[in-house]
């Protein structure tokens, strides 16, 4: 397989001379190159989106709904191809890229297509007879900038509402994972999305496609998902042109297990929260706090099951954990583990794995459990973005809430308990945009999604996406 990944501008696939290599994380093998969009392609993409906005913003919602539903159908139809491509892009095991994953990606488009077509409006009659009502207008050209860890989910999560509410879009996928966005463009074309409504530009961040897009005066709004520090850079670069921003940033979720939780379930949930997507997951729960009376028992059961997690060939349906995204990312994760050990923490796993055959050059690491780390230590404060879970015992509810809230992040958390009252009380006290009780990563597209503190700005999902992707206009009528 030797892909040459083009840009998609004004309904055409556009190759450029500046190329960068793409590698399969499981073998290190080069699987293709992507064409970097320079200033000319970025400008053409934004202009195409602006031109298409004239028509698309006025297209009837029911027509937009029809074409976007065809777009969702096209994604589903090519589900297997998307699943495999995402494994080659990210290294995520194929078992996690199956039908549910693809259906969720398609649902991101379909949900907002239907939602936008069925929207009503607010009305505020006044005592003196005046009537206020609110209209929603699309904003304009949306720049959608996405990370590498769950590309297809995040790209469709942004594209769905942006297009359904009548905006046009320029998507910049992460430089490490451009394969899915290319195929999304093919689906869009197949579905009959008018040219210029959806464009894809490839490249890096600073000094490349990302920054060019952020600074372009023809872009009206930016929906960005990625690291907190990148969010800071983007915010500064977008300031001179006063763009509307929505940020979904880093996380360092707490997973709190009370002594009255169902132990087997708590272990199973904690494995998913810690190691789904090799821990390269913003919503994961890498800080595990377990109430003292069950601490030893829980740790024994958790360690045993982590020991059974099969790490290896992502194309093998039995594999539970694939490689780290890139060699430099593997080094970064190993660095965290080494420094935690040097500070006196006990670590099991967290070792570079050399697998047989072609996987020998893959970026594999064994899942790590870290105990004895201080809550202020780097390993408990920084986003490691790998299969590394710290486990610590706690005594009281107050203590664990303080620890859970004691980072700069506030994206998500997990609370596991058999006490209904406690579940509600602790969940409400946590500074996290989403709290799951006795489960992990259950998503409803209607609810607000986003982070508190430095995990983000704004919320998306259902009405919250409507807020971001539209301009509200009040019309006041004398009657
Ligand atoms: P990243 O911030 O390095 O890159 C994300 C995207 O931004 C990429 O497309 C990149 O090219 C682009 N970019 C980088 N610098 C830029 C600049 N100066 N201007 C414009 N664009 C720029 O993040 P990553 O390493 O790809 O992804 C991992 C991060 O994403 C983690 O911090 C993770 O927590 C976060 N994340 C958050 C969520 C969420 O929903 N909150 C979801 C997934 C990932």
UniProtKB/TrEMBL annotation:
InterPro entries: Ald_DH/histidinol_DH, Ald_DH_C, Ald_DH_N, Aldehyde_DH_dom. Keywords: NAD, Oxidoreductase. GO terms for molecular function: oxidoreductase activity, acting on the aldehyde or oxo group of donors, NAD or NADP as acceptor. CDD domains: ALDH_F8_HMSADH. Transmembrane segments: none annotated. Residues 18-475 form the Aldehyde dehydrogenase domain. Belongs to the aldehyde dehydrogenase family. This is 2-hydroxymuconic semialdehyde dehydrogenase.
